[in-house]
Each structure stands twice: as structure tokens, then as C-alpha cells.
Amino acid sequence: MSRTTWSPIDCLPAAKLTGSGLLDADEHEVILWARGSGEGGVSNELRSTDAEPMQALTPAGNLANTQGKTWVDRSTDISVTITTHRILFQQTEDTTSVGVAHKGRFLHLSHLLSCHLEASMFKAPRILLMTVLGELFLIFRGDKATQNAKDALHNLETALRRQEWETAERLERQSKQANQTEQKRRVGVDAIVSRNKARHELAASVTESAFTGDAESLLQEAAALVKIIQKYVATVDRHEGSNNEDNDKLAALLQNMGMTTALRKTDFHGREKAYFAQLSRQLADFLRPKLKESLMMTLTDVYCIYNRARGTNLISPEDLLQAVDRLEDLKLGLSARTFPSGLRVIQDAALTQDAWKSRLVEAAKNGCTSNTVAHELHLSWILANELLLQAEQEGALVRDETSESLRFYPNRFEEWAKELKS
Q1: What are phi and psi of 400, to 5 degrees?
Q2: Helices (runs of H) and strands (runs of E) counted in the chain
Q3: CA 125 to CA 44: how far, in whole Å?
Q4: CA-to-CA distance for 263 and 256, rounded, in angstroms?
Q5: Angle, CA 129 vertex, CA 128 and CA 134 arms, to 5°
Q6: Domains in the chain with CATH codes
Q7: Which H helix or E strand runs over 139?
Q8: Which of 161, 206, 413, 415 has its CA 20 to 30 A from that of 10?
Q9: Mean pLDDT, consecutive 10-residue segments, the chain of 422 residues?
Q10: What's the whole-model pTM score?
């Protein structure tokens, strides 16, 4: 909601987003379909059909004060994501040169009474959403708008038919009741053994029901299957050093299945820009906590640890480069940097070269080497050496090279020259 207006998107409850603007999905929630806005003339609009203004909500879910503001019956340039639980509407607005404020509001599918497509030669394709809040139009414009509207409607109808949110709530209640009962009955090692047995029985039940049914039942069990597979992958990782034949068989099975929660390029049906933008956001969310300590990582390290985290659905080096090149444009707080040697890294966007030089000059007060800088700044030796060499080229540091080591010191020559002149 702006300072002077409010629109339909401001009248929906706020969604929890990651730092890069991706949906922080619930435990059993699966993303079914998404359409961005702004690239190639593609745009989406959420419009109210009611004559009366809708009631605005604060991010906390309270009624917002709209006194002195103008009601606008449509929210334009929004991104739309359909999950098994809700429809997510997102808008972004610039805040700083390196950051973007993400606004996400959602309509829970339990509040969606019905939906149908309205197509006309003289109007953009649109879906009429009959909700408990009133009638809303979801309008699609730009490339493949008609097909996108049909795809969105298909996914909405599928989600409404499955009602996965009710299944998730029931599973959560059953899990809590089972845990409470188990805690009352068993203690100590017996309780641990019992919980593990129950977990394995649940895994067997889910896999059997998923793979012996039709395609619809497989889709319904997808979220549970992915979580079970992730647990087994974690088990394999913990026993990676052991020569366990069962672990090798399980790893091979998971590799052949190719199941993972990460997005796939084929899911975007040729919309490569949308795929790389989504990949950039996922990459930023993945790297942000890791860069809090190390500050900078080489692309080689990023490629290895990110693909390891994705499991079996790996990305190519070319896809990684495309995603990295979009980090700065999307203002995700990270940026790519290339050293004179050609080494490419990803770092916090707030860490400019001047900021790095200040850190290095401080570290070199009493002389420093690549090893000491790597230790102090939590960097690899290669990165520390590259930073020192570039700072030397720019005149911030000078070197003292001996047969024993190469040390760097702050460049005081200009300061001394001024003192001599005075």
C-alpha cells in the first residue's frame, strides 16, 4: 500500500517471503505454477469488480487505516504463483541501490469458492475468482497470455479438487497426537527406537500408495515423497565415509529417480528469463547465510556446494553463469566480481572495492601475508592473494618480497612525500 492509494493486493493477508522474494512455503505446500511480470511485455493484474472499496490489511493482519487515501480497483504489474494451498501475488519496489523490498499477499484456496475463464476477442484473457472477499479478476497480458490463463485455471482447479491444505492440517494434527501419545508411553532409548520405527512405517506407506496408484495419486504424494527422500539423502551424507553397500544402492536409486525440490528448467516451458531469475533468487537465498562469515566465494566453490545441495537435479555451469549475471540487476544483495587474473567470485553487494581496501589496509598495519589475511577475513588463500594483489595494483598496498615470504604493508609514500614538501 502506497502513501496515497490502496488496491486489491493490499486487502489480502501477507505472505512470508525469503530474503530474495521467494515464497517461504509451508511444510506440505508445493508450487504448481508461476508467471512473472515485466519482461517482454508480460504483465498480470488483479482487479476488483465490486463498486465498494475493499478493506485494506496491514502486514500483521490488522485492519489498515485508509483515511486520506484513494481506492484503486486494480493492482498492476504483479507476479502470480499458484501452490497447492494458495495464490500468491507479489510486487516489488526499489529501496536502495543494492536492495529491493518484496511485498507478497495471498488468497488461500479455502477462501476461493469457484473460478472460471473468461475469454474474448476484445479483452485480455482473465480468470474470474469468486472469493469470500468478493469477485476478483486475474488478468493476463503479453506473450502467451491466453495459454497462460488456461494453464493457471487448470492448476487452480486441480488444487481445489485435491484440497491438499486439509490433508496437511490433518497430518499435522495426527503427528502431534502421535508424538504426545508416544511421549506418555515411552522414554529413553525405547522412545527413540519407537519413533524411528514409526517414521520408517510412514515412509513405506507413502511410497507404496504413491507408486501403485495413478498419476493423480502420485502428484498428491509428491510433497511427502520429497521429504522422505531428503531424509534418506541426509542419512547417506552422514555415512559418506563408510563402505556401506546399502548406502551405495540408495544413492544410485536416488540418482536414477532424479527427484528434488529444486526447480527444473523444463518447468518453465521455454521461458528462460523467468527460469534464470528464479534460479538467481534461489541461489541468493542459499548463499546469503554462507557469505555472512566468508564474505566472498569463488564460482567454482559455489557451483560445487550448490549442486551438492540440489541433490540429483543439477544445473550446468552455463546456467550458473546466467543466474550469477542477474544477481545485481535483481538487487538481491549479492554481486559478481572478476579479478584481473580472471577469477570470478560472488560477494555481498555492499562490499565495494574501497571497502575491501580499507579492510586490507587495516590488516596490513604491521605487515601481512596471504595466509594471515585469509585467516583474519575467513577467506580462502586464493581469494586473499587476489585481493592483496589488486589492492597493490591500485596503490593501497606495497610489497616487501624476500626469499622467505611476500608481505604487504600500507602504502605511505604519498603521505611521506607531502610531509617532505611541507
Answers
A1: -130, 100
A2: 13, 16
A3: 10
A4: 17
A5: 115
A6: 5-162 (2.30.29.30), 170-207 (no CATH), 260-331 (1.10.10.10), 352-420 (1.10.10.10)
A7: strand 134-141
A8: 161
A9: 86 92 86 83 92 93 92 94 94 61 90 92 93 95 91 94 83 65 55 62 54 51 56 55 56 46 58 84 92 89 89 85 92 92 92 89 92 91 93 92 90 82 73
A10: 0.67
Question: 10 Å Cβ neighbour count for 99?
Answer: 14
Q: All 3 cell numbers of residue 207?
A: 511410497
**Lookup result for grid cell 485435491:** 162
Length of the chain, in residues: 422
Of the candidates 297, 332, 269, the residue with the CA atom closest to the CA atom of residue 94: 332
Map grid coordinates 534461489 to a residue: 282
Cell 532409548 found at: 189
Distances (CA, A) of 52 to 63, 115, 394: 16, 21, 63
d(CA 331, CA 134): 35
